[in-house]
Amino acid sequence: MGEKSNTGANTPGGFRAFLKKKDIEFSWRRYFIDAMGAMASGLFASLLIGTILSTIGTQFNISVLTDMGGYAKGVAGPAMAVAIAYALKAPNLVLFSMLAVGSAANTLGGAGGPLAVLVIAIIATELGKMVSKETKVDILVTPLVTIGIGVLLSVLLAPAIGKAASAVGQLIMWATELHPFMMGILVSVIVGIALTLPISSAAICAALSLTGLAGGAAVAGCCAQMVGFAFMSYKENKVSGLISQGIGTSMLQMGNIVKNPKIWIPPILTSAITGPIATCIFKMQMNGEAISSGMGTCGLVGQIGVYTGWLNDIAAGVKTGITAMDWTGLILICFVLPAILTWMFGQLLRKIGWIKEGDLSLDV
């Protein structure tokens, strides 16, 4: 008998070809940029918009909006998982099967549910893609494998992942309360940088359940980047740039940052100032949804989150009412200081030649 050919899928070369055929790519970009960014979109389309609707409905006694918000928040897990699978280019049967996987991972992950969803949805999606269209009974096999693996992993791993993420978040929040000045700087700068990078600051804050003073510092850092870049680049980008960056995303400047990293200095310096002002002077806390901590002024979600937190604190009896100091802090930290400080730092860098004409221009 002749020797069997060594060109099958079980050989290294064959397996690589198999992965390529299935569009499975083990890379930082695929999992921590594409997948995490999509997860943030899923969170926005469920938990975040649900929170906004619920807040409006509660404040104005519009029950239909409150109900809408409740339904939207209730599908956060499935929404995240489907968004992740979509980013990983999953075929339809895998994509639809992620509804059950996301529900299980988010529920069993507890406070750290988003991180559990991220990890488990990636694994379940990639394994589902491997078996997709490999049998004549694909309509049975693919959902069975995807849901079976995803739910089993949720049972085995989600509670531990959730506890670990929650513990890290609690540690950051504890450290911020213990050392509000230094941690205010660190959290504000790091989360602000994450917001501008092609990763998701919102997903990070949600995964770590980052609220309280640390959440307030995170909001400050995100606003410093968004509002800061919007005003610093007004000379180049006018009103369209002001809107697209100020209530859209500072990520639009990422291409310019790669060309000239010095343009990032002004908003980072601003976040290092506004972070501790938020934690030490105004004691601004994010006690709304944790994802809002990483949204900044995007759709004013960060500010709505802070406001929702005030309402939550009043309902819990830990706050008697919303004060003028609360509103002053929110406006200064989120809008006024980022605009003024970043513009001033930007002008200084323009004068010394670190920022040149066109360095901040966007195609908007």
Molecular structure report:
Helix content is 74%, strand content 0%. It has 364 residues and is an all-alpha fold. It folds into two domains: 15-165, no CATH class; 179-351, no CATH class. Helix 4 (76-87) crosses helix 6 (113-131), helix 7 (138-178) packs antiparallel against helix 8 and helix 8 packs across helix 10 (212-232). The longest helix has 41 residues, at 138-178.
Secondary-structure map with pairings?
Blueprint: H1 12-21, H2 28-59, H3 63-74, H4 76-87, H5 92-109, H6 113-131, H7 138-178, H8 180-196, H9 201-207, H10 212-232, H11 234-246, H12 254-259, H13 265-281, H14 301-316, H15 324-351
Question: Which descriptors apply to this entry?
Answer:
0% strand; 364 residues
